[in-house]
Specification:
- The chain is built from 15 helices and six strands.
- By secondary structure, it is mainly alpha-helical.
- The protein has four domains: about 60 residues; about 70 residues, Dna Ligase, domain 1, CATH 3.30.1490; about 90 residues, no CATH class; about 140 residues, no CATH class.
- The strands form three sheets. The chain has a two-stranded antiparallel ribbon with strand order 1-2. Strands 3-4 form a two-stranded antiparallel sheet.
- Helix 2 packs antiparallel against helix 3, helix 11 crosses helix 14 and helix 12 crosses helix 14.
- It is rod-shaped, with a radius of gyration of 41 Å.
Length: about 375
């Protein structure tokens, strides 16, 4: 019995010792886990703080100009239909802004919208607010994809302008504007504009004066027909508010554009153009030839400052020294201002005018004697010198 009790006691002590040992091991393990967890948490906290600081610094710097000292101007195209996110990516790729992500979120926080397509000139020194305002105003046109038709251009000059800016040749343009099928098609589309042009006789080019001077954008897939029609359509758009006035004055579009084309070249200011218009209308009433050098130069197909007496005898219906009236049709593409002057002549009794090419000043006279005095004073005296 004694031995059994001793054995049981030893077993209990052994079990107790083992249990205590396991408890110590578990406590040791728990302490180790706590230390590891605390270490990990500490590291994570430090990382989060660092990331927060880095993120804050990144966002703060991204809200500022990328390079405040930069003087570079970079061309940026914003395609039609671009989203704010896509525009932000374009700006980042072009090195205009630091972060597309930050720019996109900044746009949202500012409730900025309605960005417009086009071509822009941006600088890395610009603020986000300035870039946003510019995008809302709208961009320009790609300078490599425009056709500039200057005021007073003839069809020959328009053909050269188109050839300089597009793949089409001047010869192709001249053939098109003389293609009767194309002219008839334009007449059918724009009857109010072209009725009187189609009825005119002895015209050199039926569409002379009907391609409005302006800056036109074009795409690589546009046809020459589409480009020319765009210019004709613009003339129709410009004249649309004046069709009633033209009819009310018992004039035709052909007559108005013809007078306007002369005013385009003869006068510089609107005031002078209205006075020159009065001279032309007064001479028509008196059954006098207009005697404008512009008509002779058009008949000759030349561009120069002075013409000779012999040149005023050139045989052409466009020669308004040899022929009375306004002539067959326009001599060039007049501006809106010249068109308005043709419809709103000044109320004068002038029958003569001459311009001092050095000063641009125009002198008017009611009689031929007065005109000769002005001519001797401002023109002939310079020629003699």
């Amino acid at each position: 019995m004694g031995n059994n009790n001793e054995n049981q006691s030893e077993k209990k002590e052994k079990l107790t010792a083992e249990s205590h040992s396991r408890t110590l091991e578990r406590e040791k393990e728990s302490n180790m886990v706590r230390k590891i967890v605390l270490s990990i948490i500490s590291v994570l906290v430090v990382l989060l703080v660092i990331l927060g600081l880095v993120g804050y610094s990144y966002v703060t710097s991204s809200l500022k100009p990328l390079d405040p000292k930069s003087e570079k101007k970079l061309s940026v195209e914003v395609p039609i239909g671009s989203t704010s996110k896509e525009i932000a990516k374009i700006l980042e790729d072009k090195k205009i802004i630091k972060s597309a992500l930050v720019f996109n979120y900044y746009v949202k926080t500012q409730n900025a919208a309605d960005f417009l397509a086009g071509f822009y000139e941006f600088s890395p020194s610009m603020t986000l607010d300035t870039i946003i305002k510019d995008l809302q105003k709208g961009g320009g046109t790609d300078p490599s994809k425009i056709i500039l038709i200057k005021e007073g251009y003839t069809l020959d000059e328009i053909g050269k302008a188109i050839a300089d800016s597009t793949k089409f040749k001047e010869k192709d343009f001249m053939e098109l504007i003389q293609d009767q099928e194309f002219v008839n098609e334009m007449h059918k589309k724009y009857p109010k504009l072209l009725d009187s042009a189609m009825a005119a006789e002895n015209v050199k080019y039926r569409l002379e004066g009907y391609l409005f001077p302006a800056v036109y954008d074009f795409s690589s897939n546009m046809t020459l027909n589409e480009i020319v029609e765009k210019m004709i359509s613009k003339t129709n758009e410009v004249l649309y508010p004046f069709y009633g006035t033209i009819n009310g004055q018992a004039k035709t579009v052909q007559q108005v554009l013809t007078v306007a084309s002369l005013l385009e070249k003869e006068g510089v200011t609107y005031d002078d153009r209205t006075k020159i218009a009065s001279v032309f209308y007064n001479r028509i009433k008196e059954d006098m030839a207009l005697q404008t050098d512009i008509s002779v130069l058009y008949a000759l197909g030349e561009h120069k400052e002075f013409i000779s007496i012999k040149e005023t005898e050139v045989d052409s219906p466009y020669n308004l020294y040899a022929n009375k009236g306004f002539g067959p049709g326009p001599f060039n593409s007049p501006s809106l201002e010249a068109i308005k002057a043709a419809l709103n002549p000044a109320d004068t009794n002038y029958l003569f005018f001459l311009a001092d090419t050095d000063t641009g000043k125009v002198y008017y006279a009611e009689t031929y004697e007065e005109h000769l005095v002005l001519k001797e004073k401002y023109i002939d005296s310079k020629v003699k010198k």
